[in-house]
Amino acid sequence: MSAPKGRETSQVGIGGGPRVRPDDRVIDDSHRSIDLAVTTLRAGSVVALPTETVYGLAADASNPAAVRRVFELKGRPCDHPLIVHLGLGVNLSDWARRIPEVAIRLAETFWPGPLTMVLERSPSVLDEVTGGLDTVALRVPHHTVALRILKALGGGLAAPSANRFGRVSPTTAYDVVASLGVGVDLVVDGGPCRVGIESTIVAFDGQEVVILRPGGVSPEAIARVIGYRTRIVPELVRAPGSMASHYAPAVSLELRGASDIVDHATRLVVDGRRVGVLSLAPVRVPGATLVWDAEGDMALFAHLLYAVMRQADAEGLDVLAVELPPDEGLGVAIRDRLCRAAVRSQQHDKEVVDDH
């Protein structure tokens, strides 16, 4: 497992956790590898591939059996819709109908990029992709490897994150192998994901834009395009990644404000816990096993988030104390992921207590 690329102080050193051994299913991003990935997808198999957000578990969106296999590998409820990834220059009318004018403006501004739009589906879109809904979630990824595969395939890819349902999303190829084991047929290694958290999902109430899931495009950036501040309404439409419990590591996750995180983590250390800390700005926690910080950079914080959770699990930490960033910009999405992950963490802790 690759170590997070932020500032880290550690008793075990950067990369001290166990690494996943090389796997012959992991291929590079050469022309030959892209051809192999496309051949594998056309044969009805699944391929994990990089996007700018996280690695996706991709199937040909026109192949119902392949899409069902994605659900099986993830352990994902079959009524939970998938995001369809499209290539550059896509004709949206092939996938959606009655497209609002404001959706066109958002696509022109943010595609390719980490914005997903939920639109009324075209009749040709599979029920397996939409979870039986009359809408479909669409985006164009901003990653060279994904776009090359989409161009060569000539269609759409149904591609949720390449991990077990509800767990931490993968941001490297070997995270995928660690998450899914032998189930995935092929993994294209395009390096670490640049953004590191999932896309923003928006829907449309007439011409009004609402956010179903905060993500890599901030509410402020959307507001600059549409001229008003958007609402966050996750209950409006069933959307990927909108469940109360999601994105969760095995380690117990505890969220604190900037003014409290050092004192809280220090108390945990004094209690004999193996503690990791993730903060926005540099902090010092004597006795903590691992301390990461994002050097005051919110984009780096987002980039680090899942990698730090995975390394905390690999190190077998008892607790990961994480600073809740300001509720603005990318901080909105980071807080969303942290709060959903903490719900699962609290449920896990209760189950451990109940079992004993």
What does this structure look like?
- This protein is of the alpha/beta class and 356 residues long.
- The protein contains ten helices and 16 strands.
- Helix 1 packs across helix 5.
- The protein is globular and about 60 Å long.
| Inertia-based shape | globular
- What is the tally of helical segments? 10
Distance between the termini: 32 Å
What's the pLDDT, averaged over the residues?
Answer: 89
Order of helices and strands: EEHEEHEHEHEHEHEEEHEEHEEHEH
Low-confidence spans: pLDDT under 50, at least 5 residues?
Answer: 9-21, 347-356
Task: Tag the structure with descriptive keywords.
five-stranded mixed beta sheet, disordered C terminus, alpha/beta, eleven-stranded mixed beta sheet, 356 residues, 33% helix, 10 helices
Question: In terms of topology, how is this protein built?
Answer:
Elements: E1 7-10, E2 26-27, H1 31-42, E3 47-49, E4 56-60, H2 64-74, E5 83-85, H3 101-110, E6 115-120, H4 127-130, E7 135-139, H5 144-153, E8 157-158, H6 173-180, E9 186-188, E10 200-205, E11 208-213, H7 219-226, E12 231-232, E13 252-256, H8 261-270, E14 275-279, E15 290-293, H9 298-314, E16 319-323, H10 330-355
Parallel strand pairs: 2-9, 3-9, 5-7, 6-10, 11-12, 13-16, 14-15, 14-16
Antiparallel strand pairs: 1-15, 3-4, 4-8, 5-8, 6-7, 10-11
